[in-house]
UniProtKB/TrEMBL annotation:
Provenance organism: Candidatus Woesebacteria bacterium GW2011_GWB1_39_10
Any one biological process term the GO annotation gives: methionyl-tRNA aminoacylation
InterPro entries reported in the protein's UniProt record: Met-tRNA_synth_2, Methionyl/Leucyl_tRNA_Synth, MetRS_core, Rossmann-like_a/b/a_fold, tRNAsynth_Ia_anticodon-bd
Broadest EC class assigned to this enzyme: ligase
Name this polypeptide is given: methionine--tRNA ligase
Record lineage: Bacteria, Candidatus Woeseibacteriota
Gene3D superfamilies: 2.170.220.10, HUPs, Isoleucyl-tRNA Synthetase, Domain 1
Length: 476
């Protein structure tokens, strides 16, 4: 990770053409965990989230619903910002690509690239997937359908647009990748994008004719065109931290640690990097690429009717159970499956019978004793080094395995020493050791399950410890 005492973390911006789904909850929860972890390490953290609000898909959706486009995006931005409360997120910036400052920054970015000779105009004909908001080559299509959006027809765009000289940046990108071997995590995705760039780059369209698609940022000095949504949206990563008018703020936070799904690999690690080079902005950020969540073995899709709104899951099961499943049971690097049956098994096994039972029984034993259990922050506020290593590799699942190993060890220690049969100093020794373990567990859980960690810390702060209702009541 970036080695300085301020760190900038961002997710990709969700496209507001539908409600939030579980796949994006994964990305924002992972990013939130790292942001909280960096704060525990003493970093000043700028954590960016927000919404991508321009483009053809959104314009079409607003028309379908008979709404003004701005009204439509306002409604959906509010739905995504509601994730902050539902998932207990700690982001301190919510950017919208319809924000006046972002619009100004996007236009300034365009002018930088244009001044560098990287923008030109030409007539072209291209196959286009509205679902991806991306141009497609025949090699990317299966039976003339986008594999990511097989229920959408491929559109043919034939018009005069502005283009970005992506082809110019093949060698600069390859040189950049060579100098920054940890630029993309995991390694497999880094190899994938290097191979893509080595295969040659094609210039791509960065504008649309306004009378055909009016919902976009006007191109500087050409009111007949609006910016292509990808060009506009990618600029949020610099506009969010003050670029170009507050360079003191920008210099404090740049560069960035970014979370992105594998479907964003090309845009985030090649397209955007080339755009930064064109605009004269140096960057050595690190990008973590996560896999997808499937539901009952199928990719999440509105057409299949298998989308799951994380806010609905939270309402039923609680915030931390959702965070725990996403972080511990979803492989950070690869695709993983979600079913409610699996979720409930994990809830009962790891949370109710595991952590919850340990905390409950230890608190009851302490309450029944006459001992004091003083609390010293310097003793208990220590992060496990193995957890630090796992989080620096974005292995959320491995980090939580370390915590749950400690849960199991503490439970085993209580069972083997049978404190209910002990008295005096022997009883105090066993209980004190168990309390110490639980306090360490709570501190090491703060990044992952902040609400649960706070409850445990409050309950076990001492000097007297009282039993309380279970953290995670068993599901029937």
């Amino acid at each position: 990770m970036i080695d300085k005492k301020s760190v900038y973390i961002t997710t990709t911006l969700p496209y507001v053409n539908s409600d939030p789904h579980l796949g994006f909850a994964l990305e924002i929860t992972q990013a939130d965990t790292v942001a909280r972890f960096k704060r525990q390490e003493g970093f000043d953290v700028f954590f960016n989230f927000g919404t991508d609000e321009h483009g053809l898909k959104i314009y079409q959706k607003a028309l379908e619903q008979g709404k003004e486009t701005q009204t439509y995006v306002d409604e959906y931005a509010e739905k995504f910002d509601a994730l902050k409360k539902a998932l207990n997120l700690s982001y301190n910036n919510f950017i919208r690509t319809t924000d006046p400052h972002h619009i100004m920054a996007a236009r300034g970015f365009w002018e930088r690239c244009d001044k560098n000779g990287d923008i030109y105009k030409k007539n072209y004909k291209q196959k286009y997937c509205v679902g991806c908001e991306l141009e497609k080559t025949d090699s990317e299509l299966i039976e003339n359908k986008c594999p990511l959006h097989p229920n959408r027809d491929i559109e043919i765009i034939e018009e005069e647009n502005y283009f970005f000289k992506f082809s110019k940046y093949q060698q600069p990108l390859l040189e950049f990748y060579k100098k920054n071997p940890d630029f993309v995590v995991p390694d497999g995705k880094f190899s994938e994008i290097r191979s893509f760039v080595e295969g040659g780059l094609q210039d791509f369209s960065i504008s649309r004719i306004k009378n055909k698609m009016p919902w976009g940022i006007p191109v500087p000095n050409d009111p007949e065109h609006v910016m292509f949504v990808w060009f506009d949206a990618l600029v949020n990563y610099v506009s969010a931290i003050g670029w170009p008018d507050d360079m003191k703020k920008f210099d404090k936070w740049w560069p960035v640690v970014q979370f992105a799904g594998k479907d964003n690999l090309r845009q985030q690690t090649a397209t955007w990097q080339a755009m930064l080079m064109s605009a004269g902005i140096s960057n050595s950020k690190q990008i973590f690429i996560h896999g997808f969540i499937t539901v009952n073995g199928q990719k999440i899709s509105k057409s299949l009717g298998n989308t799951i709104n994380p806010i609905d899951v939270v309402k039923k099961y609680g915030t931390d159970p959702v965070r725990y499943y996403l972080l511990s049971k979803i492989n950070p690097y690869d695709d993983s499956d979600f079913t409610f049956e699996k979720f409930e098994d994990v809830y009962n096994g790891d949370l109710a019978n595991g952590l919850g039972n340990l905390v409950s029984r230890c608190a009851k034993l302490c309450e029944n004793s006459s001992f004091d259990f003083p609390y010293d922050i310097s003793i208990y506020h220590i992060l496990d080094k193995k957890i630090e290593v796992s989080l620096n590799d974005y292995r959320f699942d491995e980090a939580l395995k370390i915590v749950w190993t400690k849960v199991a060890e503490t439970d085993k220690y209580i069972n083997e020493n049978e404190p209910w049969k002990l008295e005096g100093d022997k009883l105090k020794g066993v209980l004190s050791s168990s309390v110490e373990s639980i306090r360490h567990i709570a501190y090491n859980l703060k990044s992952f399950l902040p609400e649960t960690a706070e409850k445990i810390e409050a309950q076990f702060k001492g000097p007297k410890i009282k039993s309380d209702r279970s953290l995670f009541p068993r599901l029937p």
